[in-house]
Design brief:
two-stranded parallel sheet
Length: 147
C-alpha cells in the first residue's frame, strides 16, 4: 500500500457494491497512511457501506439524483446549513449548466469556505443579511462565487 517516496497512489473503485467490501474498507481506513487517495464510484450513495467508506469520505460528488437520495443526503450532511428547498435550488443550479454538471459536498470545509460547490470552482456562499434599497433585511440568499 505504500507509494514510492515522494509519490501518492490513486485507487478508483468503480461499481463495487456487490463485491466484498472488507479489502476496499482497508484502503479507506488505512490508505492515507500509505499515501493512497481513494475514489468510490457508485450509483447510490446510501448503498455504500457506512461503517468505514462513507465515514471516511471527504468529498461527495453528486450527479443527477432522485429526490429520495437527495432527501437522505440533505438530512445527513446539509440540514444544519440550509432547508431542503434551498438545497434543491442549489443542486438544480449546479445541474442546469450541462448534462454532466455536478455538485460537490466538501465535508472537510466550513459552510462559507467551499463546503458546497457547483463543479470544483464555484463556491456557494449563503448570507443571512442583505441590503435591498438601502435597508438591511433578513433573508436567506444563496450566492455563487467563482474562486
Amino acid at each position: 500500500m505504500d507509494a514510492p517516496k515522494g509519490q501518492r497512489t490513486l485507487l478508483i473503485f468503480d461499481d463495487c457494491m456487490l463485491e466484498k467490501q472488507e479489502p476496499i474498507e482497508k484502503y479507506f481506513s488505512q490508505g492515507r497512511y500509505g499515501k493512497a487517495d481513494c475514489f468510490y464510484l457508485c450509483q447510490s450513495y446510501f448503498k455504500i457501506p457506512k461503517s468505514v467508506i462513507r465515514e471516511n469520505a471527504n468529498l461527495i460528488v453528486l450527479f443527477r439524483q432522485d429526490l429520495r437520495n437527495l432527501r437522505q443526503l440533505h438530512e445527513a450532511y446539509v440540514a444544519c446549513d440550509m432547508s431542503f428547498k434551498e438545497f434543491i435550488s442549489f443542486i438544480e443550479h449546479c445541474w442546469n449548466n450541462s448534462e454532466y454538471s455536478f455538485a460537490v459536498l466538501d465535508l472537510t470545509s466550513a459552510t462559507d469556505s467551499g463546503r458546497y460547490r457547483c463543479g470544483l470552482t464555484k463556491f456557494m456562499l449563503k448570507s443571512k443579511n442583505i441590503i435591498i434599497n438601502g435597508k438591511d433585511t433578513k433573508r436567506n440568499c444563496i450566492n455563487f462565487v467563482i474562486s
